[in-house]
From TrEMBL:
<keyword id="KW-0067">ATP-binding</keyword>
<keyword id="KW-0813">Transport</keyword>
<keyword id="KW-0547">Nucleotide-binding</keyword>
<dbReference type="GO" id="GO:0005524">
    <property type="term" value="F:ATP binding"/>
</dbReference>
<dbReference type="InterPro" id="IPR050319">
    <property type="entry name" value="ABC_transp_ATP-bind"/>
</dbReference>
<dbReference type="Pfam" id="PF00005">
    <property type="entry name" value="ABC_tran"/>
</dbReference>
<dbReference type="InterPro" id="IPR027417">
    <property type="entry name" value="P-loop_NTPase"/>
</dbReference>
<dbReference type="InterPro" id="IPR003439">
    <property type="entry name" value="ABC_transporter-like_ATP-bd"/>
</dbReference>
<feature type="region of interest" description="Disordered">
    <location>
        <begin position="276"/>
        <end position="295"/>
    </location>
</feature>
<dbReference type="InterPro" id="IPR003593">
    <property type="entry name" value="AAA+_ATPase"/>
</dbReference>
<dbReference type="Pfam" id="PF08352">
    <property type="entry name" value="oligo_HPY"/>
</dbReference>
<feature type="domain" description="ABC transporter">
    <location>
        <begin position="16"/>
        <end position="267"/>
    </location>
</feature>
<dbReference type="InterPro" id="IPR017871">
    <property type="entry name" value="ABC_transporter-like_CS"/>
</dbReference>
<protein>
    <submittedName>
        <fullName>Oligopeptide ABC transporter ATP-binding protein</fullName>
    </submittedName>
</protein>
<feature type="compositionally biased region" description="Pro residues">
    <location>
        <begin position="286"/>
        <end position="295"/>
    </location>
</feature>
<dbReference type="InterPro" id="IPR013563">
    <property type="entry name" value="Oligopep_ABC_C"/>
</dbReference>
Length: 335
């Protein structure tokens, strides 16, 4: 696959930038009575540079997938802004939205669900090329072959007549990655790309994504609930809690010197050396994640935080405070 030439972006401008991004879902009773909203994404600030790999890590229900879907243009933000190559996503319509989708490859959690069961591999990969007007047919075939080789499914001729049910989970996810690459995107958004795969193939798929990201200088946003998978595959980590980013840092800094008590608790849970706990799903950390329909006042983590300071953490919302090079934590302990 030859890399797409870099778009002329304003100097110093990140490829992707979100500022105070919000995606709230309205709750309705009997389909019409508005009874409130779920603040799935509630004031997210993030940036991603061209060629950079970052992970968004957080527990189930913290808003990771809603953030991913908003960044893909699948949910319209209800507040704030996200820009890709300087263009506000909310204003993209029609052809501009189609062009944006070609520039962002999407790898989702369930590869089997992502691939239409009635399409063989070749059709599944050819369809985005046809939709985006890539012609002639020989060029499409060349690209399909190159994409399959890129993801380790070679020779392509042995795979492209197969249907999803004839492939293993790992092979299916490789096809999904090939499809995400086929339009030569500038960014890959991978939402829990290995959580439904056998443990034996998870590392292979993460290594593949990292290699492709590096070789083609793609940006990668890797969404995961599993902090143990970020070290070798990303440059930077953003920790999400209650619809917000509570800490972000270069990967080594986050794993060695977490500054937010939530990130600290996630790490402590990882480091549990007791083999009896290795297979046990534990709430991380203890206590319930906040309701995003009625989040607690002040810091959203304060009801679970062992260091919460009454009169501060339960009243005032902490801003992202600089705690090191490229490292911020939204915690009053760091003020
Ligand atoms: N389309 C929707 N309509 C209403 N509520 C939604 C919608 N999508 C997500 N939510 C709610 O938003 C909150 C965040 O969900 P989201 O799926 O983004 O979290 P997540 O961190 O990705 O969790 P998981 O890993 O379990 O998918 C949840 O309370 C969820 O029920």
């Amino acid at each position: 696959m030859s890399p797409r030439p870099a778009q002329a972006a304003a100097p110093g401008e990140p490829l992707l930038a979100a500022r105070d991004l919000q995606t709230h879902f309205e709750l309705r009773r009997w389909g019409f009575l508005r009874t409130g909203s779920v603040r799935a994404v509630d004031g997210v600030d993030l940036t991603l540079d061209a060629g950079e790999a970052a992970a968004v890590v957080g527990e189930s229900g913290c808003g990771k997938s809603s953030l991913a879907r908003t960044l893909l243009g699948l949910h319209r933000p209800t507040g704030g802004e996200a820009r890709f190559e300087g263009q506000p996503l909310a204003r993209l319509r029609g052809a501009a939205l189609k062009a944006y989708r070609a520039r962002v490859g999407y790898v989702q959690q369930d590869p089997y669900g992502a691939l239409p069961p009635f399409m063989d591999v070749r059709r599944a990969l050819e369809e985005p090329l046809i939709v985006h007007g890539v012609a002639p047919r020989a060029e499409r075939e060349r690209r399909i072959e190159a994409a399959l080789e890129e993801v380790g499914l070679a020779p392509a001729g042995e795979v492209w007549g197969k249907y999803p049910h004839q492939l293993s989970g790992g092979q299916q996810q490789r096809v999904v990655i090939a499809r995400a690459l086929i339009l030569r995107p500038r960014m890959i958004l991978a939402d829990e790309p290995v959580s439904m795969l056998d443990a034996s193939v998870r590392v292979e798929i993460l290594e593949l994504l990292r290699r492709i990201q590096r070789e083609h200088r793609l940006a990668l946003l890797y969404i995961t609930h599993d902090l143990s998978t970020v070290r070798h595959y990303t440059d930077r980590v953003l920790v999400m809690y209650g619809g917000r980013i509570v800490e972000q840092a270069p990967v080594e800094a986050l794993l060695e010197r977490p500054q937010h008590p939530y990130a600290e608790a996630l790490l402590a849970a990882l480091a549990d050396p007791d083999p009896a706990n290795a297979r046990r799903e534990r709430p991380v950390p203890g206590g319930e994640p906040p309701s995003l329909a009625a989040p607690p006042p002040g810091c959203r983590f304060h009801p679970r935080c062992p260091y919460a300071m009454a009169g501060t953490c339960d009243v005032y919302d902490p801003p992202a405070l600089g705690v090191g090079e490229g490292h911020t934590a939204a915690c009053w302990l760091r003020a």
